[in-house]
Structures are given as structure tokens and as C-alpha cells.
Design brief:
CATH superfamily of the largest domain: Alkaline Phosphatase, subunit A
Strand order of the largest sheet: 9-8-10-1-11-12-2-13
Radius of gyration: 21 Å
Distance between the termini: 13 Å
Number of helices: 14
Shape: globular
Structural class: alpha/beta
CATH class of the largest domain: Alpha Beta
Oligomer: single chain
Helix content: 25-40%
Bound molecules: zinc ion
Strand content: 15-25%
Order of helices and strands: EHHEHHHEEHEEHHEHEHEHEHHEEEH
Length: 397
């Protein structure tokens, strides 16, 4: 049996006035998602446990079959793993966004989707300017890493920048603000603004009318997590396909192979067909592949209804469609489709309600649900499940 789990990041949403009360998943043309629902079984999944933030890290850790309450230490260390930054037991990895600030407000959490090539010059400059604080690592686009040698940094409170767009930076610094280390790192963020404002990369971006990367934002920090491998826990050889460091990093700690797809960008322009083709290849050597697509989440954060629908339709046609066509020719297979969390257009950030899932298995159970969206699955045979139990359910149902 070969298993594929397709994760449309942030795909779930609320009913839209522009869509006459339908959600993007209801509105989008999704014959392949609907087929999974029609031929298989559906349910709702609580990917974000009570009391935890609705982050992609927590939600995807759940989907991969690990209880976040037991294993989650923060987003930073997951991204560190994907960037090849080995953490000692003392070191604390922060996610380091390149952001844009104007007049003391956080005006853009992604610095106008700065290119990785431009970001690389800035990260190098930050390492030259601020080596006394720790080390910066280059990631992708606006998503980078900062590693502090001070273990106590793990206990500070930090805020995801995409949650406070348009708000004054001074209200969302690392806390408690009277803590010595928090003060030091808040000073680092402040100084980065002074240094980056006139950096050549930013001068050029300004001239071209693009948002500048004129500050760093540190958040999502944590110590290295200790987790049993996927093979130990589930007895299967697994792989991930994603354009996002966070998901790659989860895979590293779980011993999953990260399959590199040249055109996987973590954005609207990602190579959907490439992801499907590489997944099919990977299944020759692996038992299970997680295919993660970031685009619907980005559209949710941007409040862009059209892009969200387009991303959902592309997942359906180019990934699920391809898999449905190819897989049955060679294997008994099982396939699941789900988002990790909601990223509602009206909220423009993640929300923690249970997500809809549909799964199909050759010769497996079939229920009464005949389409896939937020409401159809409520009638599904699988009911409401804790997120980390999904994988077991998918393997055994
Ligand atoms: Zn997500």
C-alpha cells in the first residue's frame, strides 16, 4: 500500500458574501477532492490542540501523527533543521522574518516577498553587523533564522509578525520587557532597522517601488525537540515535498526524506505538476509522502479570494488529478486531502477550528459524504478526531 497526504495549507475558510455564502473550497472546481470524499471517508480534525497557537508547525506536526503537547518546542528549531543549522542543547533558534516598517508600524510581515538572492545579501550583512548577538542563517524569501547561544531565550514570549500587521511594533516586542535578554534582543531588532534602512538592496527596492526589508523580526523560538522517528513510530518510510522550511524541518526531526522539487517556491507560483511527479517517483522508494502546498495560506494572509480559489483548483487538478491518474496503474494506494488549519480571508491569519478531511483507500471504507468542503464532512463517518490521531486513522481505517 502506498500513502499520500496532500496538505493545502490554510485552505479552509468561512462563507464569503462575494460567493453567495459559499466558502472558497465550496466554490472552487474540485472534482478530485470530491472524488476522494465520494469514494472514501470524511471527518473533522482538531489539528490545533486546546491552548496552543494555530501555527502551521503545530498543525502539521499533528497531521504527521505527533501530539504537539508532547513534542512541540517552537517553530524556530524546525526551520533550523531544514536549513542544516545543527542546534546544541543550549542554543535557541528564532524564526527571523525580514519585515517592512513605516513610522513605527509593522507595515509588511514579508518585506514585499523579497527574493532569496536579495535576502542573502541582507543576511550576510546582518552576520557582519551583529555577530555578538548570535548567528543568522539564510532561508527562503523573507523567512530566515537567528540562533541565540542563550538557553533562557526559549522562555521569552514572542509574537508572529503576520498577526500584528498595521500595529505599532513597540507593543509587540519580546516580553517580559524588563528581562535582560529580552531587552538585548529587542535592541537587536531596533538596531537592525537603523542598519538596514539604507542598505543597497533596499535602496534598489525603493527605487523600483517595492517594499523594503528594513527590519528583522524575531519570533517562534525554541530549543531542539526530541522526537521518535516516523519509521520507529509508524513503521513506514516517509517523505515530504514542500517549499516551506518549517515542514522540511519537521521532516528532518522525524527522519522523513525531503524530496527537492526545483520549482517548489512556497508561493502562488509553485510548481504543482512538479510536486505530483516527484511524489510519484518518491513512492517507488517510500511508503508515504506528505505533499504540502503553501499557496492557499498565502492567499488567505493576503485576503485574496481569487488566488485562494485558484490555488485550491490547482491542487485539485495538477496534484490530485495526476495522482488519481497514475497511482492506480501501479499500486494499491490511499490518499488524503486536508488543510492544516483555517486561514480565513476575512481574518487574514490562522484560526484553530477543526479542519475538514477526506481520505480514500483501495478497498477501504466509504461513507455518505459526496463532496469535500468545510460543511459536507460534518456528516462523515469519522466524526471529530484529535489531530495527532489522524495518521493512525488514515493508515488503519
Ligand atoms: Zn499552515
Amino acid at each position: 500500500m502506498k500513502y499520500v497526504v496532500v496538505i493545502g495549507d490554510g485552505m479552509a475558510d468561512y462563507p464569503q458574501e462575494e460567493l453567495e455564502g459559499k466558502t472558497p473550497l465550496q466554490k472552487a472546481e474540485t472534482p478530485n477532492m470530491d472524488r476522494i470524499a465520494r469514494k472514501g471517508a470524511c471527518g473533522l480534525l482538531k489539528t490545533v490542540p486546546e491552548g496552543m497557537e494555530a501555527g502551521s508547525d503545530v498543525a502539521n506536526l499533528s497531521i504527521m501523527g505527533y501530539d504537539p503537547h508532547e513534542y512541540y518546542t517552537g517553530r524556530g528549531p524546525l526551520e533550523a533543521a531544514s536549513m542544516g543549522a545543527e542546534l546544541s542543547r543550549e542554543e535557541v533558534a528564532f524564526r527571523c522574518n525580514l519585515i517592512n516598517t513605516e513610522e513605527g508600524l509593522l507595515s509588511d510581515f514579508n518585506a514585499g516577498h523579497i527574493s532569496t538572492a536579495e535576502a542573502s545579501e541582507i543576511i550576510e550583512y546582518l552576520n557582519q553587523s551583529f555577530h555578538q548577538y548570535g548567528k543568522f542563517y539564510l532561508g527562503t524569501s523573507y523567512r530566515h533564522l537567528f540562533v541565540s547561544p542563550k538557553k533562557e531565550a526559549a522562555d521569552l514570549q514572542s509574537i508572529p509578525p503576520h498577526d500584528v500587521v498595521g500595529e505599532p511594533l513597540s507593543q509587540h516586542l519580546l516580553k517580559p520587557e524588563d528581562d535582560k535578554l529580552a531587552r538585548e534582543l529587542n535592541q537587536l531588532m531596533d538596531q537592525s532597522h537603523a542598519k538596514l534602512e539604507n542598505h543597497p538592496v533596499n535602496q534598489k527596492r525603493s527605487r523600483e517601488g517595492q517594499k523594503t526589508a528594513n527590519m528583522i523580526w524575531l519570533w517562534g523560538q525554541g530549543l531542539k525537540p526530541q522526537m521518535p522517528s516516523f519509521k520507529e513510530k509508524y513503521g513506514l518510510k516517509g517523505a515530504t515535498i514542500t517549499g516551506v522550511d518549517l515542514i522540511k524541518g519537521l521532516g528532518v526531526y522525524l527522519g522523513l526524506t525531503n524530496i527537492k522539487v526545483p520549482g517548489a517556491t512556497g508561493y502562488y507560483d509553485t510548481d504543482y505538476c512538479g510536486k505530483a511527479n516527484y511524489a510519484l517517483d518518491a513512492l517507488e522508494e517510500h511508503d508515504l509522502v506528505f505533499i504540502h502546498v503553501e499557496a492557499p495560506d498565502e492567499a488567505g494572509h493576503a485576503g485574496d479570494l481569487e488566488e485562494k480559489i485558484r490555488a485550491i483548483e490547482r491542487i485539485d487538478k495538477r496534484i490530485l488529478g495526476k495522482l488519481w491518474k497514475e497511482l492506480p496503474q501501479h499500486h494499491d494506494f490511499a490518499m488524503a486531502i486536508l488543510p492544516d488549519h483555517f486561514t480565513p480571508l476575512s481574518v487574514q491569519t490562522h484560526t484553530p477550528e477543526p479542519v475538514p478531511y477526506a481520505m480514500f483507500k483501495s478497498g477501504g471504507l466509504k461513507d455518505e459524504v459526496d463532496s469535500y468542503h468545510e460543511f459536507s464532512v460534518e456528516k462523515g463517518s469519522q466524526g471529530l478526531l484529535e489531530g495527532y490521531l489522524f495518521l493512525k486513522n488514515f493508515l488503519e481505517y
